[in-house]
Each structure stands twice: as C-alpha cells, then as structure tokens.
Amino acid sequence: MREIVKNAMRALTPTRFLNTSKIYCFFYDNVFIRHGTGTRCISTASNEGEGDTATTTPTPLTRNKPLFTEAASFSELTRKDANTYITISEEDLKRSIGEGLPAGLTKEYEETKGSSLLVRASFLELRDELKACVEKAKNPNAQVRNPRKQFILDGPVSSGKSITLAMLVHWARSEGWFVFYVPNGKEWTHGGFYYKNPVAPTWDTPKQAITVLERLLKSHETILKRLPCQIFEPITLGEGPGIGMMKDAEVVAMPKGSSLFDLVQTGLTCSHAAVGVVVRLREELPLVKEVPVLFVIDQFNSWFTFSQYKEYTGRFSHRDIHARELTMVKPYRSMLHNDMMVAAYSHSTAVGKLRKHLPDTPLHVRYDFPRYSIDEAEAVIDYYSRQKLISHERFSEDKWKRIFYLANGNGSEIRNLVRFI
Q1: Cβ atoms < 10 Å from Cβ of 46
Q2: Pairing relation of β-strands 116-119 and 84-87?
Q3: Domain locations in the chain as residue ranges
Q4: Whole-prediction pTM
Q5: Is the pLDDT of residue 118 over 90?
C-alpha cells in the first residue's frame, strides 16, 4: 500500500499529505481521499488555509494509435490491436452466451453506456494459444511448439478475469466450437436440494443440473443435434428436486443412434436423470471429433473448498460436505486430462484462501492475470472521456495518471474514481 501511495504522490501535487501506519490521507483538487485498511472513502473537503495550492497546466491526452480497432470480430484481432476497443454490443454477447454474462461485464456496459470492450494483450495471448491447440490437432506432424491447453487465471479482484472468460466463450462459439461454460461455479456448491447418490459415495444436486442443461441447450441446440452419442450405458437415476426417487425404475436407457441433444433432453424431461446426464456429458465431450470442445469455468476455486451442504451424523452433530464430494463437481474440476480448459479464480466470492498447488491441477496451468498496465489504462481513460464520464474541461494526462496510480491498475476502481477528475 505504501508503494501505491508513493507512486500516486509522484504524479500528484497535493496541498497536504498525512501519513500514519495504516491510513493515508491527502488533498487534491478540493477532493479529500482517505485510504485505510479495509475501507476507502472519498468526500469533498476544503483545503483553505493550508497553504498555496500547486497548479499545473493541463496536458491533453495524446495517443499514438487509434482508440478503436478496425476488426469486426474477436477472430480478426491481431496482437497490434492490443489496448484498443472493439465494438460489440451487450445484446450480441447475450445471444451467444446463453448462460448469462458476468456481473463485471454487465456493469461495464451499464456505467459506460457504450457498446465496446477493451482488447487486452492477455486475452489475445489466451485466444492464440487455444487456436494453436486446434491447429496442432489438425496437423499433428507440424514442426511447431506444443501450445498450452489449460489455464487457471489468477489475479486480484476486478482485474478482468471473468470478462476475459466471457470474451473467450463468445470468440470460440463464433468459430463454431462447443463451449461448456460455467459462469458461476459457486452455484454448483450452494443452494437447492442435495441428496445422497444411490450408487456412488457422492451427493447429487439436481436443481443445479437442470439449470446447467437448460443453459447448454439455449447456447448449443444446433450443435447438440449434430453430435452423436458415443456411450450408450444406462444412466443411473437419483432423487428429483423435492420429489424423491422414481418408483419402479433405477436407470434410464440411451438408445443407439441418440445425439447429445437427446441426452440433454433426457435430463430435462426426467429430472431424476439430470445429474447423471451432466456427468455423462463430461465423458462424451472429449470424444467429440466434429468440432473443437472447450471447457470454461469461472469461480473455479469454489470447487476446492467446502460446500454449503451438511451431512447429519447424529442428533446434535453434522459434518460439512466438501465440493469434491458433489457428483457434478468431481468430474469437472480435474485438469488431469488432455482437453482444452480455461478456469478462473474469483477472489470476490469469499471462499477462503487456498494453497498454491491444488489437487487434480498440474503446476504449469497457473496464469497470473495482470491488472491494467499504464497503456491499457490510457486507452480506458480515453474511452471514458469519449463516453463523457470525464469532464473535458478538467481532463488532462496528469490527472488520469493520478487515477491510475491510486487505483493501482484496478479497472473497477478506475471507473469509480474518474468522476472525481
């Protein structure tokens, strides 16, 4: 924190600066900012009588490249388009992402009142790696390096991990890929009904399974109809949400010639089979050869801690059920496979601090997701200025750098602080 404030002070010319062990306070442009442990409040204050205020001549922001890229889609972007904005509306994203948009992306559209997204170098790197995986699979004898197939994005709160995942999902689906997208991993471990699995020592969550199948059908109905089933073993029936076990039936058969669409419909028409269908999809999707398959999981760290559910072990005792004991979570959280998978930790879900090396995850998959660089922040401030979130009369390059250093590259905080320029 001290280093952040020192960087901010190099760009600021304050009239007063208070330094305590845990609280940093200073004035600039008649705005009082107090940064303490756990809280940050910004309120107007007067600094009259505290000495002469240093004045600087505003320096307009000048960029060496256009703010908007000429690319019409994520597929057309190149590395040269980094730190520019691409025009894509919220409605376009909602049409391709039937599972729903992350809260941070919705808030970005709402507060900027725009229809563009920042193209970050980290997104382009992830996209190119996944694209290289598909090209390598088509031509395995090509003399190229082996691209990475799996990533776990780990970075500070509001660094843009969820937005990047949504952009990857939209790009992959526009390329014709099948994407199994979980925008809220914590939903798999909280809420709804839970029952003991009749066969395995795990716990079923049928309500969450039905939601997963509904969202998947909304996003991939056409592709699901084209993909044939490869596994025809009967699916074990469990308890339905709030309706108990099915009478006179323990399994449901999958006839030969069925498609993945038929498999999903089985889980939706028979809620007792919903959990089994979601588990079967995890076995079926790696066998798909017609289109590339990508797994994208947000709030991935929710699957490595305890769930909301409890098992009662006595009249006055119970034990917490771990996420790995949930029938749906167990097969999807492992990364010990050869499938393409991108996951992201969420540090805003308060699931607790986890050790660096998690079970069922290789060491090399961790990807340190950065905050905004100063070049990215420059593009963001320029975009906010054009969207009239910043007053042009008071805007200058010195002032946006103050905001960048105060927020330490945090995109959400930059958006909240620009109103004080």
Answers
A1: 9
A2: antiparallel
A3: 2-62+391-420, 161-368
A4: 0.83
A5: yes
